[in-house]
Amino acid sequence: MRIDDKIAAGQTFSFEIFPPKGDMPLETAYRVASEMADDRPDWISVTYSAGGSGNSANTVPIAASIERDLGVTALAHLTCLGSTRADVDAYVAELAGAGIENVLALRGDRRPGREAIDFAHASDLIAHLRASGSGLCVGAACYPEGHVESPSERESFESLYKKQEAGADYLVTQLFFDNEDFYRFREKCLRHRVRLPIVAGIMPFTSVNQIQRMAFTCGASIPAKVVKRLVLAGDDPADQARAGVEYACEQLEDLAANGVDGLHVYSMNKPSVAHAAREALLACGYLEA
Ligand code: FAD
């Protein structure tokens, strides 16, 4: 089913997984997806070479298995830096062959040796997907705190408006640790004529190192209340990860209470994280048993 139809029908709840890195077997991803499917998400998204992992070849096979074997809607990510129109058309044909109706159209992070060929920005990819007549439901990324490369807020919203005009059907946010950033962003979108539904993406922090890495790669700021949680958690990695899941659940509950088009959990291939999020959203009434 198309994700824009799901969002139109009511608030959504979804998870993200990434294909196994290096030599890890594909079965690992199938097992993770299968366990997450037990928590009945509206969809599971599958990343495409995220963080430069180079594991893009497994995105469609995993997404296909989610649709076919688990009966859950899959969202296949796609980045376009370094790709030609023919590469994208081949990917679209693969999606069609696997019965996948949803794609998240992204530029991808800049890396040495990966320059723009036919697509400089995500909006170029979105326009191509629309023009190709694929009929795909196309999602796009947005950034409550602005994209790291954006020189100004105005340019950040102009880029977002271009995604809307190119034909994006909805937006999914980059992770954020302070919901006030999301609420401000949502208001500003309207002022900048960006009227697409916005699904809020939440990632539990797992350790001091991980959150510092996130701050640099995504430009997400770390509020004092998160630093305090980590200090209170102490040096034990398990306690730090537990504090991260607790904090993420509180963020989700607050977003649910403030009305949101959808909640997406960056569950980092951890079914326990996805499950904790579902329990929190059941408890606050966002989800029904
Ligand atoms: P763009 O929209 O092209 O924006 C990139 C920069 O260019 C921004 O600063 C923007 O303001 C500017 N810009 C955009 N259009 C124009 C224009 N027309 N003229 C001038 N400037 C412009 N990465 C992966 O590799 N794989 C994944 O699976 C993946 N999944 C993601 C999922 C989500 C929900 C999010 C939020 C990010 C994901 N990323 C993934 C990371 C993403 O690829 C990076 O954030 C990337 O740096 C930007 O992607 P974008 O699609 O927003 O690019």
UniProtKB/TrEMBL annotation:
The keyword Oxidoreductase is assigned to this record: yes
Reactions that this protein is recorded to catalyse: (6S)-5-methyl-5,6,7,8-tetrahydrofolate + NAD(+) = (6R)-5,10-methylene-5,6,7,8-tetrahydrofolate + NADH + H(+)
Record pathway: One-carbon metabolism; tetrahydrofolate interconversion
InterPro entries the UniProt entry points to: FAD-linked_oxidoreductase-like (IPR029041), Mehydrof_redctse-like (IPR003171)
One GO-annotated biological process of the protein: tetrahydrofolate interconversion
A GO cellular component entry from the record: cytosol
Keyword Oxidoreductase applies: yes
Known cofactor(s): FAD
Family recorded in the similarity comment: Belongs to the methylenetetrahydrofolate reductase family.
Stated name of the protein: Methylenetetrahydrofolate reductase
Organism, as annotated: Candidatus Olsenella pullistercoris
